[in-house]
Amino acid sequence: MPNGSLDNHIFLKKSRGVSLTWEKLNEIALSIARGIEYLHEGCDVCILHFDIKPQNILLDHHFTPKIADFGLAKFYPKENDFLSISKERGTIGYIAPELISRNFGVISCKSDIYSFGMLILEMAGGRRNSDMRAARSSKAYFPSWVYDRIKAGEDLELLNFTEIDDAIARKLCIIGLWCIQMKPVDRPSMSKVVEMLEGSIDNLQLPPKPFFSSSQQNSMRVIESDSSSELQISESIEE
Length: 239
Description:
mainly alpha; Transferase(Phosphotransferase), domain 1; two-stranded antiparallel ribbon; 8 helices; 4 strands; disordered C terminus
């Protein structure tokens, strides 16, 4: 694709990608959501992608996104309430908790929605959600930091802001936070996500704060580390 993958344009510190406007970021997020909605609800058999991340979103001449790399995808019969798979799959940093431990819930289309939430939070932040180099900083985990900023009504400290840009950024962050709720049942469906992206931020409420305490994050890292040898990942853990 002529404009490469989305990560080349949202992580600008590590690339020479074109700086995308907030309106374009919103359009890209909405197009990705509609694509996932089609996979989940528009086909005769629901298709779970299991590896939604910036590297797997390709951009054409007009920056219209295309979901790529279906190597981990699996059919999901619509009459089922859950999916049984023999191995964890996905990319660490985007993988839903229930794919690491069934104690968090059952595997379903909500697993892709978690990954999408992490994706749009990175789009809004212009950075990786986890930055271990900032381990002693409140910004080490972007979803936790941005949740606290929005709840307090504080400035998001993001780049190139106008009042309209601020509304778009807050909307993307709030929707992302809904998508990364730890229990799958608490996440919206992708059709609901599309509806939220098409609507105004005035219609959105901040969700409960997800699984963010430092002790819980450390526990998740241990689980991820123990499971990493079984994960079918297409990039290194540092990415």
